[in-house]
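Raw record, unedited: SDR family NAD(P)-dependent oxidoreductase
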Amino acid sequence: MKSANKLAIITGGGSGLGLATAKKFTENNICTIIIGRDQHKLQAAAESLGLLCSYKVCDLGTLEGIPALVDEIVAEHGTPDILINNAGINQKKPFTEVTDADFQQIIQTNLLAVFAISRETVKYMIEAGSGSIVNISSMASQYGLPFVIAYTATKSAIEGMTRAMATELSPLGIRVNCVAPGFIATDMSAKALDNDPNRKTKVLSRTPMGKLGEPLDIAEAIFYLASDASKYTTGVILPVDGGNSIGF
């Protein structure tokens, strides 16, 4: 693993967009550590990706465990060059039925954990004088979506945090950017759309390219923002959505 060009951490790397990104990274000789809650899923993903991929089991919603997690990764592999904040949870529920506990749970995983793991990783990146962080937003931050109030709140906050982080950290050599995926064909989106034909029809009708994206579409964008190809790019929110955010 020490022969790899760079070291990356991907949260939520065991499936979906995170796994597609891990595959893209390892194919480009980036030593990649995937983080998630499901050991079996992570182990299967790491085995499928080969020697450049390893994993750490961690529930990022438990914030107090994050500093030790980052310290452990650094002790074993060195300072990360790249952090991809991909892990997230969603909940589809009418506004008036969302409890305080529901809202807090999504805030904890989608926002507070992103802040905490970024803070701990940045401490080491500052010492190295370089680094690239890519956060993951959503179309929920680009326009109003019903029934996902907590998720929307977290993704809107992620975009604001991306700009604030970029402004503060870029002078220290650490770039911070964000990808805002459109509607991508994953297990998570299937749950949201396949049981709601009207919602799926609306999604496709306002997407100029007329189809769902693929996980690789997002992985390619993340790879660009994480790599030296974007060395003069920071604070950017990049929609990868088939035109959904500008569709009529």
